[in-house]
Amino acid sequence: MPLSPRDLAGCLLDVGAVRLQPLDPFTWASGLKSPIYCDNRQLLGFPEVRDQIVRALVAQAALLEPTLVAGAATAGVPWAAMVADRLKLPNAYVRPTPKNHGMGRQVEGPLAKGHRVVLIEDLISTGMSSLKCAEALRAEGADVPAVLALFSYGLPQAEVAFQAAGIALAVLSSFEALAAEARDRGILDIAGSDALKAWRSDTVAWSRAHGGV
Length: 213
Prior knowledge:
Layout: H1 5-14, E1 18-20, E2 26-27, E3 33-34, E4 36-38, H2 47-63, E5 68-72, H3 77-87, E6 91-94, E7 107-108, E8 116-124, H4 128-139, E9 143-152, H5 156-165, E10 168-174, H6 175-184, H7 190-201, H8 203-209
């Protein structure tokens, strides 16, 4: 059976990759307060779940007919490597910024020029880090039709950013699927669900109201 968005949402909750704390928010690296924290690296420790995810990524990636699979450093790198292996395609990874020594490359691996690249991410928040990686691939002469991610918070600014860049975004699971699964499991009550909706509609205002930047 194909891995559905709700299936993956359940996996994220089962392995502790996603935590929901509307009353005790997390602080992101940016200083923003958030009622949700996602660490998809946890999924790598569960072989059966990992295999399901890789098969789903392979199915989605194959539809894009790539000639190279790239991972966004660092969390997208292992997923991209596994997908490239199963599709028998070249594999590369993209740093957030160019190295300041050696060859000074940002895209590591085979030259992306002339390739049709699918870029794999583990998580999409605002989308800016993913799009910087996509731009680095384009700067080498690659065609980047889409970014493929395991999970997206579904923030409005990400949708706007991807549309502006002319790059499609495909995700295996979504904020909506996660919230629905959490409600069905009794992890979220009505107040918690309302808090998540308020956060997603305006992350900055919600953060400031809860002591963040």
